[in-house]
Design brief:
Belongs to the methyltransferase superfamily. PrmA family. Keywords: Cytoplasm, Methyltransferase, S-adenosyl-L-methionine, Transferase. InterPro entries: Ribosomal_L11_MeTrfase_PrmA, Ribosomal_PrmA_MeTrfase, SAM-dependent_MTases_sf. This is Ribosomal protein L11 methyltransferase. The protein is α/β, with parallel strands linked by helices. It folds into 2 domains: 4-77, Alpha-Beta Plaits; 128-281, 3-Layer(aba) Sandwich (Rossmann fold). It is 27% helix and 35% strand. The chain contains 9 helices and 14 strands. The chain has helices at residues 20-24, 55-65, 80-87, 130-141, 158-165, 178-189, 221-224, 228-234, 251-260, and strands spanning 4-13, 29-37, 40-47, 68-76, 91-93, 97-100, 114-117, 148-152, 170-175, 197-200, 212-218, 235-247, 263-271, 274-281. The strands form 3 sheets. It has a 7-stranded mixed sheet with strand order 10-9-8-11-12-14-13, with helices on both faces. A hairpin with a 2-residue loop joins strand 2 (29-37) and strand 3 (40-47). The mean pLDDT is 91.
Length: 282
């Protein structure tokens, strides 16, 4: 029998949303779904079925916090990735890339497009998120023809493959998540015309010498900032660093971190609230 989760739905004034994670931290919450509706947010909190005895206390805490219209419910444990795969459709990024989520039944790309078969999996980088699209657009703007490329936190491997397809001489992708690298290897096998090298492990597994003309890092700010000094040692003096995964509001802080690590900001791109930056070693 398929497991069911408990749900607790309620409304909150929009200004309370930012403080909600702190309130929920002590409770065994699996996740939240938040939707903005005018001056309020509608929230659904998901809990394991075993947490039913805690619901009265959680509801009391939420009422004190200002929650309105509290309602209990259940949610079947769906295969969310499977559901997404059924609904996913191929899409174009920029002028050069055609992202196809169905490798078993591929859709022919428009003329002149690079056909990337990226099945939705648990590894980051299906091409649908703005941060990944920004990196693809930067690669399109600055094709790495003949370059040696390092893809930090490769996830699905989509950026490594894109760089190779655009003419990179050699591409190495790595991730600390071994499951992600397994996915990247499976994705790479679908594209034998663009061979890439992959490994599971940290950046310190690489010799600290300037071996790369281009370094790609599509990850959260708190993940890539500690890596910047090491990336500075890995990039060639005339090379380039592409960073994505930051919000527009974080650009100034990231520029400061880049400067402190020996990089100069030389370009940027934005999609909605997301940004990507281009930096060169000073």
């Amino acid at each position: 029998m398929r497991e069911h989760f408990l749900t607790l739905s309620f409304r909150l004034p929009k200004h309370q949303e930012e403080s909600l994670p702190e309130l929920l931290t002590p409770w065994p919450v699996l996740g939240c779904e938040v939707r903005e509706v005018n001056a309020e947010v509608e929230v659904t909190v998901f809990l394991q079925n075993q947490a039913r005895a805690l619901l009265p206390q959680l509801k009391g805490a939420l009422k004190s916090f200002g929650a309105l219209d509290l309602a209990e419910g259940t949610q079947p444990d769906l295969d969310w990735i499977g559901e997404y795969r059924q609904l996913a459709r191929p899409f174009r990024v920029g002028h050069r890339f055609w992202i196809d989520p169905h490798p078993d039944t591929p859709t022919p790309p428009p003329a002149g497009c690079i056909h990337l078969l990226i099945e939705p999996r648990q590894a980051f980088g299906t091409g649908s998120h703005e941060s990944t699209q920004l990196m693809l657009l930067l690669l399109e703007d600055r094709p790495p023809v003949g370059a040696r490329v390092l893809d930090v936190g490769t996830g699905s491997g989509v950026l490594a493959l894109a760089a190779r397809a655009l003419g990179a001489r050699w591409v190495l992708g790595f991730d600390v998540d071994a499951d992600a690298v397994f996915v990247a290897c499976e994705t790479a096998h679908l594209h034998p015309q663009w061979p890439v090298a992959l490994f599971a492990g940290p950046s310190r597994a690489l010799a600290p010498r300037p071996a790369f003309d281009l370094i790609l890092a599509n990850m959260l700010v708190e993940q890539f900032v500690p890596l910047l000094p090491r990336l500075r040692r890995l990039v060639h003096p005339g090379g380039t660093l592409f960073l994505s995964g930051l919000l527009v509001s974080q650009k100034e802080a990231v520029a400061g971190e880049l400067a402190a690590s020996g990089f100069a900001l030389v370009g940027e791109k934005q999609l909605g609230e997301w940004a990507a930056v281009v930096a060169s070693p000073r």
